Amino acid sequence: KESTTIALIVYSHFTAYQRDEARTTTSSSSSITSRQLSTSSLRAAASLRDELSQFTLNNNTEGEDEDISREDNLSHEIATAILHCVDCAMSTIHTASKTTKSSSSQWNESVTSILELASAFATRDGIVARALVNRAIEYCVVEKDLVRIESVNVLGWCVGGVCDGSKAAVSILKKKKKGKDEKSGRSGVNVDSDWKLECLIGASKAILPRLTDKIAKVRSAAIAASSTFFLPSGAKFIETSPDYAKLTDSIQSTLLWLISNDSSASNRALATTCIPTSEESIEYWIERVKDVEGKVRESALDVLRENVSEGNLSEDSMVEILRTGLTKRCASTHAKTVELLCCNWMKNVKFDPIALLDRLNPVINETVCETTARVLINVASALDCDTTDDMGIELVRNNFGAPEIRSFQQQVLKKMGIVQKEKDAQMTPSMALFLRVKCAMTVESTTMPSSAKADTISDIITDIPTLCNLLNAHLDKLIAFNNRDEDDEMDEDEAIAFEDDQNFICLQLIHMAKASELEEEGSRRHFISIMRSMLSRLETPDDLVDACVKAMAAAHDTEAQFVQTISEVLVDVEDDDTFNSVRERSEKTTEIVRQMRVIAILSIVLENISGRMVGHPILDGFFEHLSPAITSKNAVIREHGVVCLSKFCLLTEEDKVMGQFKPLLMTIAGSVEERVEVRAQAALALCDMALLHDKTLESSDVEGEDDSTLSFKDMLLEMLGHSKPGIVIIAAEITAKLLLAGRFHDPNLVAWLLTVFFDASLTENHDAEENGAEVKEVGSPVRLQQLLSIFFPTYSMSHLDANDAVMASVGPLLSIINEKLGGAKSAKALNKWPITKIVEFICYTVDLADKKKNAEVETENDEPENDRLAEPTEVGPLSKSSSDKKEVIEASSTLLASIDIAEFLSESCDSAPTYYNRALAKILASASIDVDNEDKTLLSRLKSQVSEAEYANSDGPTLTAIGKLSNLLADVDDRVFSEDEESASEEEVEEEERSVPEDDSEEVEKSVQSDDSFADALEEEDGVMEKENSRMSIGSFYSAKAGNDEGRRMSCASRISLGSVN
Fold it and tell me: Which residues pair with 709 in a beta bridge?
């Protein structure tokens, strides 16, 4: 009777709670992401606990000795009743798979309330907790995913209830008596710790496999449940257990793995919020700021804002977060980053923007710091606005109160200038950057009145003379530092930091002057004189030259005036003798510095003036200052001089370039005694000239080794075969550029590019050494490999002649590789030159271009009939009807490649190694050629070359391989028709047909049958070709399936010319 009463009490409370409309749930939609028990469930559990306690007290008639055993029995009865409710809830889930959407929502809410109340009650009683955890563990492995989800939620609630707080939980049915001593009290705590530890270990073992469940929603529930192991309070009252620590470490490692690798973006976002804060987890959060999904990025930024202060982040980490987050590609990510920046980092530095920029190191991270300064100024300017379209500003406004908003605006928008009010205050890099950004934003503003702009700029820089005086002061300080004694005791790192800071401040002051209005004539002239003085001074650091030249250009009204001033600066540079007065420097050192300064100034000027200055007299005079560098004995100066000359040629008239500068560059590029770097720069200059002037490709007066005039193409061929990899790489990149631009279509050049592309030795020593920046530079073998991988398919599809050139490169390629083998006796040499793969690559590339061309033709043929009729049709004596058009048969790439290979075996087999001949013969043996549908002339030519190859070779394996192709061509007619025979008159053809036997005339008719009959023949053969020739290449397959006459783009005579190149 007592057990029945207890069960009824439990059932009544569970029934009332699931029907209670006032209860609160942890999630509005489902229980998947619920972590902690709701307040309503805790109140309902306390109410049930009180009623059961009252019932026990009213019916307690036993003595004190039997009290404990009776209470344990009652706990077991309560656990049985609660498990019965849980089983009913799980059964409802299992049997409700066919219910409608509305009813599913109803039972889902009811089931969640039952499971939540059971978990809330169990966390205060050891017996009930063990029973509920064990039952949930059993449900974690069932097949139904919804059951697994709810069972994982139960485990999460139980773990959260056990770990929440540090009070020692005891059974509600046990009452402490006042006379209990300390020993028994401590024993009770130990007993509580034992069952709690047992529940935690069991729950962690069950949750861990569910983190990698195949169902995303199950993983989501497991991730949410795992977060309860890392609550701030934790299980501090539980003694340290190695097993428990090991399991929690495994859960944390799995969560870190899921952050980066879970296929579900929602799970990745949830996992970022579940792991505890540590150095390892911070790195994972920063990495998730780069996630492809916006919700994951936003979740990571929220966690960083809530759990990590800027003091716990390194400079690199902060810069990486801002560089990734402050992007306009995603407005929500940008807004969350602004919230992190303003509500966490700025708050920690008391809203001081200069202090925050100091943490970001603007000298090294100028771009990120500039973006940050712009964001801070924008937020401070718009925080007090009623409405704004910027989500980031809205988020900041929601996090800040009125005092914080006022403090933020006062610190960011307060008046600051380059003139420090405090006597000992000095300009810092962060302050210089912030003032420069503020000045630039003021000039760029479209809403600020002109008078307000002028006042703001005046507050920042005062006036141009003041700015120039400050610039000169920092420049003098920098020059004095560079001229210090070598025995100065300053640390090397400190010296580098001081020099970088002063350089940075000078640059910011120059940019600040450019951003200000230089409309006043006196200020503009004064600024130009200061820039001229800095450029003319050899002691001015090279890092400031670029900024000085561009600032001077901005201060001039016209380009002609700017060029005139630069010519005067160059004269002043050549007359400056102050460089060697401070230290005893040699004349040679001074001359090197002077020439490098001239080249630096000219290079920047030539990059920033327009094409309108071509042929200007002052511009032509620049060559007088440039020529000493080109003829200098110093290789570095010569290299920079050639680079500057290439820019100068682009702004010079064509006749002068062809008559004066092209021979000079050809001489430098072709000089064997010149350094590789200088030759490479000269070749690059010639490439730029060739893209502008067609005459660059003509023969030059420069003589080659055989005393003949040398063209740029001949020079490229010579450089492509050079022994030094640097020259080969530069020449290959130039060749690819000119081929793609259509300057020439030479099969020999394409063959050399293929040789370079498949030469693995160029990259094997550079992959590990080069970083990301070096790979992007011209001359990098890795960069060349990337370019060529895109070049070949692009070039083949660009033009018909380009595709023909790729196909015709097979012959030259065979000869080049034969020379590269150099008489090597081992067949391992073919590992470096995989001739079979190269030929297959050529055929695939050509066929890919043909397929694209055929697809375009089919698209044109699918145009509406009215559109085609609307096009004008030329009618004349030369026009022919479609019925008179001669059928065009496109030769397959496999056939053309086979002709070139057979020709090489017949003519050059004696000079090639035996293993090389065998490799080529294997290619012929595996060639899939459709004898019935290929052009008869080309087949006859192939048969002739194969016969000659058999006669020229004596090696057994080579002859066996060639014999396979010879047998395939056994039925091919040996007679080759010339173009004269094909263009004979109808009467001559009729007479010839009468003179031929009947069988031969039938063969001739087959070779010139109409397009319809050809298509029919193809349709008959399509189903058999692939089965008969299992090694058919992709190229031959598509070529044999070529479409109608409009899709076939070349005549057989054209294809014959391709084979005749060699």
Answer: 703
Averaged pLDDT for residues 154-169: 72
**How big is the CA angle at 392 (ends 388 and 394), to the nearest 5 degrees?**
50
Q: What is the pTM of this model?
A: 0.75
Structure confidence at residue 754 as a pLDDT band (50, 70, 90): very high
198, burial (CB in 10 Å: exposed 0-12, middle 13-18, buried 19+): middle
Nearest to 83 by CA among 183, 184, 11: 11
Q: Are 1058 and 808 in contact (CB under 8 A)?
A: yes
Host H or E run for residue 55: helix 39-58
The structure tokens listed for 460 are: 């920042």
Residue given tokens 């790979």 in the structure block: 775
pLDDT at 916: 86
CA proximity to 481, closest of 502, 467, 509: 502
DSSP helix, strand, coil percent of the chain (3-state; round to 5): 70, 0, 30
Q: 856, 857, 841, 852: which is closest to 806 by C-alpha? A: 841
Distance CA 35, CA 231 (A): 10
Please give the Cα distance from 639 to 645 (Å, whole number).
10
- Is residue 341 within 8 Å of 332, Cβ to Cβ? no
DSSP 184-238: HHHHHHHHHHHHHHHHHHHHHHHHHHHTT-SSHHHHHHHHHHHGGGG-SSTTTTS
d(CA 402, CA 395): 14
What tokens does 833 get? 């030159």
Amino acid at 588: K
pLDDT over threshold 70, residue 885: no
Residue 509 Cα distances to 404, 597, 604, 666, 667, angstroms: 32, 21, 20, 44, 44
State the alpha helices, DSSP H only, in 516-586.
Answer: 521-536, 545-555, 559-575, 579-582
- 213-216 long-range contacts (CB < 8 A, ≥24 apart) are 213/148, 215/145, 215/148, 216/262, 216/263, 216/264, 216/266, 216/267
Q: Which helix (H) or strand (E) holds 700?
A: strand 700-703
- Considering only CA atoms, which of 676, 747, 754 is closest in space to residue 713? 747
Phi-psi region of 910 (alpha: psi -120 to 50; beta: other; left: phi over 0): alpha
Provide the token pair at 457: 């700029």
Q: Looking at the predicted structure, is the pLDDT value of residue 256 above 50?
A: yes
Locate 798 and state its tokens.
């660009």
Which position has the token pair 């370019």?
787
Q: E strand or H helix at 629, and its extent? A: helix 622-630
Which among 467, 554, 546 is positioned nearest to 512, based on CA atoms?
A: 467
How far apart (Å, rounded) are the C-alpha atoms in residues 279 and 116?
34
Our CA angle for 349, 351, 354, nearest 5°, is: 75
pLDDT digits (tens, 9 = 90+) for 708-748: 467 888 889 988 888 888 889 999 999 999 999 988 889 99
Q: What are the pLDDT digits (tens) for 74-117?
A: 888 888 999 999 999 888 887 775 554 444 556 678 888 899 89
Helix or strand run (H / E) with residue 409? helix 402-413
Mean pLDDT computed over 948-976: 84
Summarize the confidence of residues 394-410 as an average pLDDT. Answer: 92
Which residue is listed with tokens 């503003």?
Answer: 445
Structure tokens, 763? 């990259």
Give CA separation, 437 vs 17, 926, 961, in Å. 61, 68, 74
What's the residue count for the chain? 1062
Rounded Cα distance, 539 and 479, in Å: 7
* The pLDDT of residue 884: 44
Contacting residues for 1048 by C-beta, under 8 A, at least 6 apart: 888, 889, 890, 1042
**Cβ atoms within 10 Å, residue 290:** 14
Tens-digit pLDDT profile for residues 427-475: 899 999 999 999 999 988 888 888 888 888 888 888 888 999 999 999 9
Q: Are 170 and 75 in contact (CB under 8 A)?
A: no
**Would you state the pLDDT for residue 375?**
95
CA distance 702 to 858: 50
Q: How confident is the model at residue 347, as a pLDDT?
A: 92
Amino acid 70: pLDDT: 65
Q: Which whole number is the average pLDDT over 134-158?
A: 91
**Distance, CA of 369 to CA of 49 (rounded, Å):** 59
